[in-house]
Amino acid sequence: MGLLIALIVMGVSFYVQWRLKSKFEEYSQVGLSNGMSGKEIAETMLRESGIYDVRVVSVEGRLTDHYNPQDKTVNLSPDVYYGRSVAAAAVASHECGHAVQHATAYSWLQFRSQMVPFLSVASQYMQWIILIGVLLINTSIIPLTIGVALFAVTTLFSFITLPVEYDASNRALAWIQKNRIVNEREYVMSADALKWAARTYLVAAIGSLATLLYYVSLLMGRRD
């Protein structure tokens, strides 16, 4: 049963990732009516949100866009940074949505950020602890119990990420619509692109929960 659930989650994950890439491929070909680049949109959104201490920079890769609260940078991939498409507008404004969350002390982002240092350390050892726990399950349940507890924290983190991502998208869509960065047709496309991006986080969270429940079932089975 656990294997079946894992295969289903994996299949859904591959599908969502494929749809996300195809959507961004499609909307990257649609030129933005106002002709602004992702960099220009990001800088405008930050400025109009009263944020002047965040830099917009270009980073290598594709779909590598992210906001870094440590050094206060909105990092955009070349296709987004230089792009003048609907996809570039959606991604650039979404990442600035995270910057606005940071500037306004959005509670879910703060909670998520507080978990990062612990998870950075825990993730280095968690899989090894779980592996040892599975191998020694007939001898001692302590290693697996510790591993499951650590994995539970990572699962919690993945679910806390959901409101952070959805809120950033909502902020982005509200801003680009209010400020006429996009027309009505482009707004629909932007919303569609961000919807599929958010679904990747949702599938990841569900996958993490399914894996956690599998480990818990192993642990409870041993206790029985």
Automatic annotation (TrEMBL):
Q: Which domain of life is it from?
A: Bacteria
Which keywords describe this protein according to UniProt?
Answer: Membrane, Transmembrane, Transmembrane helix
Which InterPro entries does this one have?
Zn_peptidase_2 (IPR007395)
Give the stretches traversing the membrane. 115-137, 144-164, 196-216
Q: Name one Pfam family in it.
A: Zn_peptidase_2
The name this protein goes by in its record: Membrane protein
Q: To which species is this protein native?
A: Dyadobacter endophyticus
